[in-house]
């Protein structure tokens, strides 16, 4: 009798617990618009970090929920301009499927969002415990990057060496790992998250790095040195800011003669040294594209159709091998796309891929992989699969 009464009182206490939105963690971001305690209905918009780019990323923990309680999350666009007279379109913060976790570790998709005429996306989730984690996509923060690098270092031992690329403007470390001998005949550079909100790119990077550390990649590791940076824009990822079009310079438009960001300058120095000592074979930048892009694709070099010789052959062979290996559930577009929205040669030269292309050799290829985020397969598992398939592409490309 007393046990039954206790359980009844406990259930009543849980059902009347106050819902509370928490964002004071790495990558946390949400501005509460309204919260209906009785209905379990929360409306948010991405909080604006002045000068730190697009307000599109959101990530929060909801405390005080009850097991089995239905929570309704409504997401609207940030109403304030992120640049003078420029309000970000709602599509960037409203994925068809948001990410949900019941333990803060394992992430899966919500049901598909409902959309209203007022441009609000509505996600309905049933809680399994007293806390609920909700995010634009599966978060990948500096703590996740550190865990990944430590695990790969421990697994590979002397085959791998961790390094600090630079300290950010806010004093945070930008860390990476080198796998293989520094003077190996083949040299590869991979970085992700130049735009902080594009978390899918980091998960693809994790899939690639874990594959490179696997038994399947032993031959690749014996012949190649891979330099890998899981998160470039550490400051904005930590803050939960979008990063893209940040002031005074977008991270991926900062590859100039005088970069604003220390990590970009440090990457330029290392890449220059690699090219001078051994020659750079492959540069890869990992991103996510727009909401309407439903398949992964590679941005290729401008003037590809007019290329000839070794450079043309290498780019053509890369896209053919990628098409043969990145086969699903997120299947890559078999043809290059080109960043035609970038209108001047000067700006193209300040993009990481353009800089690497210009500072590499005749045999260097420099590509950007844009992995679709707005599909049913844009999950942790889907991203990791793309990463492993990218690794097989790389291994076969360098084998020939």
Give the secondary structure arrangement, pairings included.
Layout (H helix, E strand, L loop, with lengths): L1 H14 L4 E3 L8 E6 L4 E5 L13 E5 L6 E6 L23 E3 L6 E2 L4 E2 L5 E6 L4 E5 L6 H15 L3 E8 L5 E7 L6 E7 L6 H14 L5 H6 E6 L4 H6 L22 H16 L4 E6 L9 E3 L9 H17 L19 H5 L2 H8 L5 E6 L9 H20 L1
Parallel strand pairs: 3-5, 13-14, 13-15, 15-17
Antiparallel strand pairs: 1-4, 2-3, 4-10, 5-9, 6-7, 6-10, 8-9, 11-12, 12-14, 16-17
Helix pairs in contact: 3-10, 7-10
Short overview:
This protein has 400 residues and is of the alpha+beta class. It has helices spanning 2-15, 142-156, 199-212, 218-223, 234-239, 262-277, 309-325, 345-349, 352-359, 380-399, and strands at 20-22, 31-36, 41-45, 59-63, 70-75, 99-101, 108-109, 114-115, 121-126, 131-135, 160-167, 173-179, 186-192, 224-229, 282-287, 297-299, 365-370. It is globular, with a radius of gyration of 22 Å.
Number of strands: 17
Number of domains: 2
What structural category do the secondary elements indicate? alpha+beta
Summed over residues and divided by their number, the pLDDT gives a mean of: 95
Strand order of the largest sheet: 11-12-14-13-15-17-16
Reported CATH architecture of the largest domain = 3-Layer(aba) Sandwich
Main β-sheet: number of strands, strand sense, barrel status? 7 strands, mixed
Number of helices: 10
Radius of gyration using CA atoms only: 22 Å
Q: N-to-C terminal Cα separation, in Å?
A: 76 Å
Return the CATH topology of the largest domain.
Answer: Aminopeptidase
User: Which runs of at least 5 residues are low in confidence (pLDDT < 50)?
Assistant: 1-15
């Amino acid at each position: 009798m007393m046990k039954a009464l206790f359980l009844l009182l406990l259930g009543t206490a849980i059902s009347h617990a106050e819902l509370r939105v928490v964002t004071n963690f790495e990558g946390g971001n949400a501005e509460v618009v309204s919260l209906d305690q009785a209905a379990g209905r929360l409306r948010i918009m991405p909080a604006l970090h002045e000068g730190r780019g697009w307000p599109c990323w959101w990530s929060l923990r909801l405390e005080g929920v009850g097991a089995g309680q239905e929570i309704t999350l409504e997401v609207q666009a940030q109403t304030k301009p992120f640049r003078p007279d420029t309000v970000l379109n709602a599509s960037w913060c409203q994925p068809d499927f948001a990410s949900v976790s019941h333990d803060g570790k394992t992430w899966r998709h919500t049901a598909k969002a409902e959309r209203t005429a007022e441009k609000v996306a509505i996600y309905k989730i049933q809680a399994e415990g007293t806390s609920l984690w909700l995010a634009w996509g599966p978060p990948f923060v500096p703590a996740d990057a550190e865990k990944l690098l430590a695990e790969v270092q421990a697994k590979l031992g002397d085959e791998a060496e961790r390094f600090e690329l630079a300290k950010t403007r806010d004093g945070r470390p930008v860390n990476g790992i080198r796998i293989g001998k520094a003077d190996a005949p083949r040299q590869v550079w991979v970085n992700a998250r130049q735009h902080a909100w594009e978390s899918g790119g980091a998960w693809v990077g994790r899939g690639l790095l874990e594959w490179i550390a696997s038994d399947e990649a032993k031959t690749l590791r014996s012949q190649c040195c891979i330099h890998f940076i899981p998160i470039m824009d550490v400051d904005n990822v930590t803050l939960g800011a979008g990063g893209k079009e940040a002031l005074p310079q977008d991270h991926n438009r900062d590859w100039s003669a005088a970069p604003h960001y220390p990590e970009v300058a440090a990457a330029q120095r290392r890449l220059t040294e690699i090219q001078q000592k051994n020659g750079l074979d492959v540069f890869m930048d990992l991103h996510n594209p727009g909401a309407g892009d439903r398949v992964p694709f590679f941005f290729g070099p401008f003037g590809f159709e007019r290329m000839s010789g070794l450079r043309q052959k290498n780019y053509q062979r890369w896209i053919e091998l990628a098409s043969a290996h990145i086969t699903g559930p997120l299947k890559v577009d078999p043809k290059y796309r080109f960043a035609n929205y970038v209108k001047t040669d000067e700006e193209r030269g300040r993009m990481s891929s353009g800089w690497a292309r210009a500072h590499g050799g005749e045999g260097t290829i420099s590509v950007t992989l844009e992995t679709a985020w707005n599909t049913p397969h844009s999950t942790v598992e889907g991203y990791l699969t793309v990463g492993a398939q990218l690794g097989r592409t790389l291994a076969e490309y360098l084998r020939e």
